[in-house]
Design brief:
It contains seven helices and nine strands, in the order E-H-E-E-E-H-E-H-E-H-E-H-E-E-H-H. It starts with a strand and ends in a 9-residue tail after the last helix. The strands form three sheets. Strands 2-1-6-5-7 form a five-stranded parallel β-sheet. A two-stranded antiparallel ribbon has the order 3-4. Strands 8-9 form a two-stranded antiparallel ribbon. By secondary structure, it is α/β, with parallel strands linked by helices. Strand 1, helix 1 and strand 2 form a beta-alpha-beta unit. Bound molecules: 3-nitropyridin-2-amine. The site of 3-nitropyridin-2-amine has 13 residues, from strand 5. Residues 197-228 are annotated as: Disordered. One of its GO terms (molecular function) is tRNA (guanine(37)-N1)-methyltransferase activity.
Length: 228
Amino acid sequence: MRIGVVSIFPSYLEPMRMALLGKAIDRGIVALDTYDLRDWTHDVHRAVDDSPYGGGPGMVMKPTVWGPCLDDVCPDDALLVVPTPAGVPFTQATAQAWSREKHIVFACGRYEGIDQRVIDDAAKRVRVQEVSIGDFVLIGGEVAVIAMVEATVRLIDGVLGNASSHQQDSFSDGLLEGPSYTRPPVWRGLEVPEVLRGGDHAKQQQWRREQSLARTRERRPDLLPPEQ
Ligand SMILES: Nc1ncccc1[N+](=O)[O-]
């Protein structure tokens, strides 16, 4: 998978070159290109934003800068993703779908966002998705990109050492993952549940399912299947 990220703070994206994502890049499973939007500015101040039509707070990012940038970095067969609090929710299902893409380009907006015509113009040529990672407002899209890239790339075969681990993710069966334990069997007077210390895998699977349902009922009743 090829990943392109456009930002006015490309160094903000350096964490993606570390740890497991960094290894996926080193092993050629993922190629990461980061671009500085200011390289597409054409004035001495390298301006990327301007005041909004119709008034309102903050600044809007200029179409005359974003347009030429996306023309250069986002080919027709790529998926263009624009992180925004006004986007469609990003979920594990989104990550699953994106993990099968060949090329994803992320456009990180800051200030009050990007002039809508940039997205409308790009949509004539490429598939565009405006997505949100949650109901809160970040300063820019970079942190959202790191989160979404991590959720997506970890699903690509070969990235996680133990392939089955993402099959047992939270959300992979639609429920929250239950509690996990490791040695010692007793720690500060707290015991690992007996069923997990035994060898009855069928009982352990049943216990895990019950724990998932209980946790989902308590924390995310919206995820419960209708009959539960
Ligand atoms: N929540 C967000 N706030 C700012 C930019 C992007 C965002 N998002 O969720 O993708």
